[in-house]
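Batch job 17 of 40 flagged for manual review because the log was empty.
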Amino acid sequence: MTSLLEMLDINTGLALGVAVLSLLWWFSVRRPAGAPPGPWLAVPLLGHLLLMMKKDPLEQFAAWRRQYGDVFSLYLGSQLVVVFNGYKVIKDALVKNHNAFSDRVHCFILDIITDSKGKLNLVKDLSYEVVLK
């Protein structure tokens, strides 16, 4: 009876490794159900930061707004972030659904990026349909 190591050659090991890495990648960047649409290609651990580095981040956010609408989501690192654009959407979210934002966590990265002017942070509840109703 041959051992397991003798049965596995280098090609089988590589195929198994690629399959495991692909599954890890898929589960790390897949959007949860109910999350708003957004760019599909997210690199594990980096998210969509590589796409933002290709051009000016403001231009990239404007392009995503044109493509996905006033509410979209993206990964900053491994954290899924929901982005609100436009006065009406932000007002609807903060005035009509203020309870959805009462449990947001403090994001130090946002303080660095906005020089501590970013008052909206991350929301734990990702069901954006509730916010838009």
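Reviewer: the log was empty due to a logging misconfiguration, but the result itself is present. Residues 128-133 have pLDDT under 50 and may be disordered. Unflagging and moving on to job 18.
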